[in-house]
Amino acid sequence: MTKYKFILSGGGTGGHIYPAIAIANELKLHFPDAEFLFVGAKDKMEMQKVPQAGYEIKGLWIAGLQRKLTLQNLMFPLKLASSLLESKRIIKKFKPNVVIGTGGFASGPLLQAAGSAGIPTVVQEQNSFPGITNKLLSKKANAICVAYQNLERFFPKEKIVLTGNPVRQDLIDIESKRDEAIAFYGLDSNKKTLLVLGGSLGARRINQLIEKELQNFLSQDVQVIWQCGKLYFEEYKKYNQPNVKVVDFIERMDFVYAASDVIISRAGASSVSELCIVGKPVIFIPSPNVAEDHQTKNAQAIVDEKGAILLKESELDNQFSIVFEALLKDSGKQKQLSDNIKKLAKPRATQDIVAEIVKLIK
């Protein structure tokens, strides 16, 4: 029996790392004796998260281009050349059957080196608006697994496969966990629960909004699970009380989703994909500080299908309390948003991506 080998690269943020780990885990179910190697960027979070998931990882000396002239930018050509050379060495030594990239700085040189060596490559694009790296890699890639319709503008049409983004499988059936989740957080099952997701590091503008609106929520008999993020926990933990649970990081995402009735969230690709499966009414507040404003585009793709509400950071002061109160009082609107976002869910995304990888090695 052939012993298959796979190299995966995804990093910089959880949105790139966790899809890569999910794909590796699914591949392992198909090929229990396969060998896996991850390639990331030195000093980025993948260097910790991947070994924690049980996989070996090698780091490249690579970083992204800054938007202004910096020493980092002047070093970029040197870092890119070094990373391409190291990627070639890794590929030559490991001899993978397929190389899979889920985004992040390291996936560029790695997939470029793999394509040049004639090794099949798969690009997994999470966003509705791809970054420049994946646009370049798509020319040589064998398959491009996407989560949104209408990406023919950016990628060769014949290579695109609509799979969705890999998500945690424990989110598939959260309704059965509601009572357990409410008890876990010590909440009142008779009250509505607002879940606030600002990401693992936190979102300053969302935290400022929740601080300002907190009394308003409580006066409407709404209890809050508030993920303020690691960077802001010390500042906001003082608001912890029986009806307000302030946390920096969430281990059991299935529980917070199960406990919630309405969700406020950023619109990173992984979050959007999870929220489609969870199927709760969502108010997206996209981060304006990301490349190509892709979070707004991700959220807009859901709003266009009448599956969510979108508020820009610039609209929060004037619009938020009106929009939130109207949604809270309108059970019909809540159901409409819930039903429509669920229609966009792709719960088999990981299996479908792996099916494309398997085609390349059979």
Automatic annotation (TrEMBL):
Keywords: Cell cycle, Cell division, Cell membrane, Cell shape, Cell wall biogenesis/degradation, Glycosyltransferase, Membrane, Peptidoglycan synthesis, Transferase. It comes from the Bacteria. Cell wall formation. Catalyzes the transfer of a GlcNAc subunit on undecaprenyl-pyrophosphoryl-MurNAc-pentapeptide (lipid intermediate I) to form undecaprenyl-pyrophosphoryl-MurNAc-(pentapeptide)GlcNAc (lipid intermediate II). It is found in: Cell membrane. Pathway: Cell wall biogenesis; peptidoglycan biosynthesis. SUPFAM superfamilies: UDP-Glycosyltransferase/glycogen phosphorylase. Belongs to the glycosyltransferase 28 family. MurG subfamily. Residues 193-347 form the Glycosyl transferase family 28 C-terminal domain. Pfam families: Glyco_tran_28_C (PF04101), Glyco_transf_28 (PF03033). The lineage of its organism: Bacteria, Pseudomonadati, Bacteroidota, Flavobacteriia, Flavobacteriales. This is UDP-N-acetylglucosamine--N-acetylmuramyl-(pentapeptide) pyrophosphoryl-undecaprenol N-acetylglucosamine transferase. Its main location: membrane. Residues 6-144 form the Glycosyltransferase family 28 N-terminal domain. Its EC number is 2.4.1.227. The keyword Hydrolase does not apply. UDP-N-acetyl-alpha-D-glucosamine binds at residues 13-15, 127, 168, 200, 250, 295. The keyword Calcium does not apply.
